[in-house]
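Journal club prep, notes for RB
We'll compare a predicted complex against what the paper describes. Inputs for the uridine-5'-diphosphate case:
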Amino acid sequence: MSRISVVIPCFNEEEALPLYYREMCRVMGEMSGEEFELIFVDDGSSDRTLSILKEMNEADGRCRYLSFSRNFGKEAAIYAGLKNAAGDYVATMDVDMQDPPGLLPEMYRILQEENYDSVATRRSTRAGEPKIRSFLSESFYKFINRISKTEIVNGARDYRLMKRKMVDAVLGMSEYNRFSKGIFEWVGFRTKWLEFQNVGRCAGQTKWSVGKLFAYSLEGITGFSVAPLSLASVVGVCFCILSFLMILVIIVRTLIWGDPVSGWPSLVCIIFMVSGIQLFCTGIVGEYLSKTYLETKHRPIFILKDSSEEKKGDRHEAASV
Ligand code: UDP
Ligand code: MG
């Protein structure tokens, strides 16, 4: 009998939680030979999420919860859950059923019978998603895969089941700026990809605004590629060559036709363009510098306010980061 831990980040999910729990009970019933623990991570919710989790914990010993002191983000919630998971197999899953719990038995079977360390999932379609969001996501995946050595799979969900050794490797990467899609790839191991059709949220609203998604994609780019840092040197070399050619043209032109004063508007345009490029490059350097700055502060990735573990007198273990 194996122990399976499921890590579920929850941020204002009072509507989705009961539906998710009902579905998970059905799945756990299907896999009745295995021992389960459901680790719900309340990411600083302001609705009834925490009290529902407490009720679930009272009623069903398999449900555990960790509650953050504020909203630290989904990445921090996944990290906290993995850190507190004791299972031989650990899954990460959204609570809104966009990661169908019904796939879990199949994922578990693959890890048992085939030679894989992890089973991950990706959406084969983006149906039901706003067109502009799909377009931005597609462009992001194309861009990051061009500049990063770590492959970030297009449409990959954070829904996966891993063996213990892979979980330990992921926990070994205790960086502050976390981008799980990259981290899961970076640690290596053999991963099988399952595809499924996109499903809508079962209840509640998405927690990701376009701004939050943009910040998340920057996290991915700065976390897994340093190529943008070379941009300044490449553009600099191109401009040196261009200016050299321009100097040659001007010298020859002056020798042949003399030097009538003209070209003021083009000069202003060139100054604007070059200073724009310089600021852009400085911005890129600033982006990496800010990430380095946050990383060197060694701030905890999350802070616990409450957890089901404390009641068992396990406070220290649960609070350690
Ligand atoms: N989530 C979280 N913290 C956040 C945002 C989201 O823990 O700051 C959780 C959320 O409760 C859900 C999962 O992350 O279980 C995915 O969020 P959501 O469904 O809003 O994202 P989408 O599926 O729209 O990308
Ligand atoms: Mg969702």
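Talking point for the session: The beta strands are 3-10, 35-42, 63-68, 89-92, 118-123, 156-163, 191-196, 304-307.
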